[in-house]
Structure formats: structure tokens, C-alpha cells
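Researcher: Structure prediction, please.
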Amino acid sequence: MKGFAMLSIGNVGWIEKERPACGPMDAIVRPLALAPCTSDIHTVWEGAIGERHNMILGHEGVGEVVEVGSLVKDFKPGDKVIIPAITPDWNSREAQRGYSMHSGGMLAGWKFSNFKDGVFGEFFHVNDADGNLALLPEGVSPAEATMLSDMVPTGFHGVELADVQFGDDVVVIGIGPVGLMAVAGAALRGAANLFAVGSRPNCVEAAKKYGATDIINYRDGSIVEQVMEKTGGRGVDRVIIAGGDVNTMSQAISMLKPGGCIGNVNYLGSGDSIGVPRIEWGCGMSHKTIRCGLMPGGRVRMEKLAELVRLGRLDLSLLLTHRFSGFEKIEEALMLMREKPRDLIKPVVVI
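Model: Predicted structure follows.
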């Protein structure tokens, strides 16, 4: 089969590989719609997870089942399915402890384009199919459903980690597709003042449509000073970090009220450490909580999020700014994600 792969750090290209084999609990799927991710960019051009050779990229997709293992109960060839970016081993000790995303080791629930070939192939393998696939609901397009693989659950997990409650004042740092979903999730959770940090015009407009009450433009000066000014010096109850770098955590701590909570879902592709400002963290005694996590995968989460889309509670069309047609367009879509033109939020390739 053909696939678009990371050849080595800084190098990508089309390769030929054997079609993956199907284990008794697994499925083989062919893609119907795919989306490149900023994580693919970190992986290839920043070497964020180390050297990889001839590894097929991609972890966001909707597909059609072509083969299932003998022990798979709930799926059959021909089913159209959503495939989460995180595909845990559900019988692992980590999953039983409540941390399925780390099944097999730290971040090891993230298998596609990390430990094994990803979804940018003519066929791809899904482990533990009954636990990791979800049927694509009628009325939800494959293109929009690709956002359910990673963008929606990651943004919503930031909301969960920050523990947004009714009436909370919330800041979302970074309003790319994950941050926009954090804005949408915080609004659904009942946030009051909802500050979105970003500058690109189309992302700003989308953030407002998803529920942001205020826009903080980092080009206008310190985002901490802007948030503190807008809150009368009080700061906010929750901060969700969906973008930025090793300095962003320090900013989040500085704008947070004592007793507040930070939820980080930002993938730091470079840097050795992050900073915690001593005074703003109350010399270690501020009750400011930092919670960081990889989004949980799994069928139940996919099904719940898909229902929000099916019922019209979550509009994913705002994220899809660039659409391509044909498997061969994966390379063009990935390069667009790398270049990040100002009108881009998310590209999708429909096959």
C-alpha cells in the first residue's frame, strides 16, 4: 500500500509498505477523510518525539472498516467510523487506573504516527476495535467528523482539566483549532467572562461565534496585564493553555486567582523546562493548581462528542477553512499546516 511518511527528522515523502495485518481484536480501515495536525509538524520538523524512519504520519481520520478480527463484536466491514487520535489498550493497568491515554507507558495511548504507522495510508490498523472505534452518525459529514478525532476532544479535555464551573471567568491561551474547541467547551460548561488569546482575524471571529466575550491580542502587549486590567486586578478562575511555548505556563500562573486551576493540553515540541514564577505562585502556597494531560481516547468519548455535533450543539464547520479532494492531496494539506497562512484554521482531505 501507499502512505505519506516521515522519512527522518525534517524529511517527508510517499512510500510503499505492506498492508497492516489484523489481529483478533483489531480492525483494518481505509480512510474517507483525513486532517493533518500541528503535532505532525512538531514530530517531523522539530523532532519532538525523536527520530522516526519511514513512519506513516497522521492521527486524525474518519474511515470505512474493511476487515475486523475474530473477536470484534460491534463493527463489521462497510461500517463508517470515527477513529480517535488516542487508541488505548483498554485492558491495561493504566486504563484500569483511569489513565487510558498512558496505557503501556507515558503517552503510549498515542500510537498513530508515534509508535506505529498513522492514518495517512491507503489502509491503517486500529487496535482494540470495540473500544476505539465509533460509528459515524447519520447527518455528520466525514470532513467535519475528522475534528472529532483530536481537535474537539483535546480542546474539551483542557476544559475538563481546568474544571470550568458555571459563572467562572476563563482564559483560553491559543485559539487555533484546539483552542477554539476549548472556547466552545468552556461556553458549554457555563463560563461567564471568556477571554480568548489570539490575533489571526478568522480565529478571532470563530472564537466569538463559539462564545468568547473578549479577545486578548498578544500583539498589543502583555497578555497578563491585559487580563488583569479587564478583571479589575482580580485575575481569572481558570486558564486553558492550548498554544504557546515554555513561557506560557508562567503567564497562566500570573493571571490566575488563588485557588484557581490551569488545564494544559498544549503539546510542547521544543524546550527543556517550563518556568513557574515564585511570587505569582504564592511562594508555592497559592492553591493554584496545574493539571496537564493528553486527551483520553476511546469509543464512548467519540460517541458523546459526535452526538453534540449531530444535535447541532457544536458546529465544526467553522474550523474547516481549507478542503482538498483526493488521497494525493495529503502532502499539500500537511505543508499548508506547516506554513500556517493567516487564513488557515484547519485543512481536511476528503478521499
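Model: The two ends are 15 Å apart (CA to CA).
Researcher: Thanks, that helps.
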